[in-house]
Design brief:
Elements (H helix, E strand, L loop, with lengths): L8 E2 H5 L5 E3 L6 E2 L1 E3 L9 E4 L12 H6 L4 E4 L13 E3 L3 H12 L8 E6 L4 H14 L4 E5 L2 E4 L2 E2 L12 H13 L4 E5 L2 H5 L8 E6 L7 H4 L2 H14 E7 L3 H7 L5 E6 L6 E5 L3 E5 L2 E4 L7 H16 L4 H5 L13 E5 L2 E6 L4 H12 L6 E5 L8 H13 L2 E4 L9 H9 L9 E3 L3 H11 L5 E5 L6 E4 L2 E4 L2 H28 L1
Parallel strand pairs: 4-5, 5-6, 6-7, 8-12, 8-13, 9-12, 13-14, 14-15, 15-16, 20-24, 21-22, 21-24, 22-23
Antiparallel strand pairs: 1-3, 2-7, 9-10, 10-11, 16-17, 17-18, 19-20, 25-26
Length: 504
């Protein structure tokens, strides 16, 4: 259906390899597309009905037929289906059928691509971009797909799709087709726990899977820790080669009985690719020490880089050629993004979990010459258990904390903030509350003096803020730049005022 390898199928051809029952005839009709969104139905489409947490696709069957649907696929019976006039196809699992059909329509592109999928609570975006950057420098045409968008050879492309870390199959499979048609040979993608648990990668062949760490984020969305871990483990089971963090005990446990090849990276002595933190950072591979000339800050990025190097080694590249480009690695947008002016340094980072914000704060403490001022909040309609934890961590490592809103969504921002401040130490008096994130950022930067660092955590690359009143344009990076400019202007005014006073 998509690109050069356009696939045209009869309904009967699409169904021949799939268990189903059919009510109605007209199976000799050509199918031109497949979707689970009635608004996206065009003439010749199959409409797949799924029952979601809040919306039942069955309510939109009439709309889909009016849009040109030639068949309805669902995983339950439908009353009065004789009156619909098009075939009703019942399958055991609508979600899996959608995944299968989208891959089939796209010509099963993953079979012709080298696909690397990275999962973990923290670091997915950074590792995928690191892998992409080194592959590009080695002359390999590569696409990176994830939280910050879609990049081919380092350039962001426009592609109409939902703003999700792991894309739904009806967008993902055509994207793989597009990449293949554009000469891309390697795909590096972020595999979120929700993407894995909802089957978005079910019919995508994974050559190399990577497991970075297991934290606490998204546990409530999965209904518990075991469900969250099981979602991540789907990638372990479906990857031909697997790479895992030897420093993370949960990662080790998840991979200890793996049937396929498993390689470990980390600082642990049993790591296959080991990071050695001595006077100079070093990498040990096959008992040989090499200088590890990493320029990006943070010990967590040492492990992220080691994970990326391990991927390149498993793709067959020589370590000597890989290490030529390690010093050139650059963090993706919104990851420890740095702005400096008049002796103060502002970092914007996506850290929105307890593990991530602790790692970032520890890294900044190591280079901070003055106060460390932290601005952060927590998202609404998400794991409430992490809020007090993040408050505890922020108060432990920061000189001053301004608690604000993140993406409150439908929750009251004040209640989220109250959950956060429950975690602050009783003797910590350097905390302020400012629900307006814009004001909070400006307050923090106005407070900063020469040698201070301001960390704005939680939203990173994001360009919007989600509230109960809607979604609004908002960028931590842009607000930081504005605040630095206003600070400079105010300092200039104060200087002129002092000079004028001296003259008089």
């Amino acid at each position: 259906m998509f690109g050069k390898e356009r696939v045209v199928l009869l309904i009967s051809e699409l169904l021949k390899d799939w268990p189903c029952t059919v009510v109605g005839d007209k199976l000799g009709v050509f199918v031109s597309g497949i979707t689970e969104h009635s608004a996206n139905v065009k003439q010749g489409f199959i409409f797949v009905v799924r029952k979601g947490a809040s919306v039942d696709g069955a309510c939109y069957i009439k709309e889909a037929i009016e849009g040109g649907a030639v068949a309805i696929v669902m995983d339950r019976s439908l009353n009065n289906c004789q009156t619909i006039g098009i075939p009703i196809i019942t399958v055991p699992d609508s979600r899996r059928f959608l995944s299968y059909a989208c891959a089939r329509f796209a010509g099963n592109p993953s079979e012709q691509l080298s696909v690397i999928a990275v999962t973990g609570t923290n670091g997915k975006t950074t590792v995928t971009h690191f892998v992409g950057q080194i592959l590009n420098r080695l002359g390999v045409r590569t696409a990176v797909i994830g939280t910050t968008g879609i990049f081919i050879d380092g350039k962001k492309i426009d592609y109409k799709a939902p703003d999700m870390t792991t894309l739904p199959v009806e967008f993902f499979q055509p994207l793989l087709r597009k990449c293949l048609d554009d000469g891309v040979t390697h795909i590096v993608l972020e595999a979120s726990s929700l993407g894995l648990s909802t089957g978005r990668l079910d019919h995508c062949e994974i050559d190399i899977g990577v497991l970075l760490n297991i934290g606490t984020d998204h546990i409530s969305e999965h209904g518990g820790t075991s469900n969250y871990i099981n979602a991540k483990k789907k990638l372990v089971d479906k990857s031909k080669i697997f790479i895992a963090n030897r420093d993370d005990e949960v990662c080790v446990k998840m991979t200890e009985s793996i049937a396929n090849k498993c390689i470990y990276f980390g600082t642990h002595s049993l790591s296959d690719i080991r990071v050695l933190r001595e006077e100079n950072l070093q990498l040990i591979y096959r008992n040989e020490k090499r200088d590890f000339p990493l320029s990006v800050p943070g010990q967590f990025n040492e492990l992220n880089s080691a994970a990326a190097i391990t991927v390149l080694l498993e793709l067959g590249f020589e370590l000597e050629n890989i290490m030529k480009y390690v010093s050139e690695l650059m963090l993706p947008e919104g990851r420890l993004q740095c702005f400096e002016q008049d002796g103060i340094t502002v970092y914007v980072d996506f850290a929105h979990t307890p593990d991530a914000i602790e790692a970032v704060l520890l890294s900044l403490l190591g280079i901070c010459k003055g106060k460390l001022i932290t601005v952060f909040g927590c998202g609404g309609n998400r794991d409430k258990g992490k809020r007090a934890q993040m408050g505890t961590i922020a108060s432990l490592y920061s000189s001053h904390v301004i608690v604000t809103s993140d993406n409150p969504r439908s929750e009251d921002p004040h209640l989220i903030i109250n959950d956060i401040i429950q975690g602050f130490h009783d003797d910590f008096n350097g905390v302020e509350v400012e629900p307006d994130r814009r004001h909070a950022i400006h307050m923090a930067i106005a407070l900063a003096l020469d040698g201070d660092i301001v960390l704005i955590a939680g939203k990173g690359h994001e360009k919007t803020q989600q509230t109960s009143d809607g979604v609004f344009l908002f960028s931590d990076q842009e607000e930081a730049k504005k605040a630095l400019f206003h600070r400079q202007v105010n300092q200039g005014r104060n200087l002129l005022s002092n000079q004028f006073t001296d003259v008089n």
